[in-house]
Amino acid sequence: MLKGNHDERPEKYLEKNAPALAADDVHYRFEQLLDFDGFGVELVAPYYPIAPGWVAIHGHESKGLNQIAGRTAASKAKKAGVSVVMGHTHRLAISPESTGYGGKLRTLYGFEVGHLMDVRKATYLKNGPANWQRGFGLIYAGKYGATPHAIPVEDDGSFVVEGERYGRISRTTGGRFAPKGKAA
Ligand SMILES: [Fe+2]
């Protein structure tokens, strides 16, 4: 598990408002609050080597956001010189960038893995628009490289992986997403 900007809130709050306590506090760190030890979850540092040629970050560690899906991760991949998979933007896309010449090209990928939240509960949006895509990412890791797949999740929660649909399709006869309990 990587630590995100929201996960840092309790320790950042202590640092700001009670620096003397923050110095040796461990109780308000999210790995402690969520009992990582009890659940067998390991907290890893950003730029965690997740697959050959790939590192994982949350995405807030360095500055820079791009409104186009995938470009934030692509820019971080370019700077780091390694393919980057990350969250943070709530956008879903794989954005490759290749360099080289004479038929010898090297491709780095930026991969943003979307979000799995209920957008209606993001009260800070105040019902306004957001360029966010629900989904998740898969990385098929091989010995020398890895293949990224971006998986969109529909409004009814269903999604397709390798041609197989998971989750109940919840649509009306017209094909629109149905309100809860009113699927055709
Ligand atoms: Fe974030």
How do the strands and helices of this protein lay out in sequence?
Blueprint (H helix, E strand, L loop, with lengths): L8 H9 L1 H4 L7 H4 L2 H4 L8 E4 L2 E4 L13 H10 L2 E4 L5 E10 L2 E10 L21 E7 L4 E7 L6 E3 L2 E3 L18
Parallel strand pairs: 2-3, 3-5
Antiparallel strand pairs: 1-2, 4-5, 6-7, 8-9
This protein binds fe (ii) ion (FE2).
The site of fe (ii) ion has 5 residues, from loops.
Summed up, what is this model?
The chain is an alpha/beta fold and 184 residues long.
Structure characterization notes:
By secondary structure, this protein is an alpha/beta fold. It has two domains: 1-42, no CATH class; 44-138, no CATH class. Helices cover 17% and strands 28% of the residues. It is built from five helices and nine strands. The protein has helices at residues 9-17, 19-22, 30-33, 36-39, 71-80, and strands at 48-51, 54-57, 83-86, 92-101, 104-113, 135-141, 146-152, 159-161, 164-166. The strands form three sheets. A five-stranded mixed beta sheet has the order 1-2-3-5-4, with helices on one face. It has a two-stranded antiparallel sheet with strand order 6-7. The protein is globular, with a radius of gyration of 19 Å. It starts with 8 loop residues before the first helix and ends in an 18-residue tail after the last strand. The site of fe (ii) ion has 5 residues, from loops. This is Calcineurin-like phosphoesterase domain-containing protein.
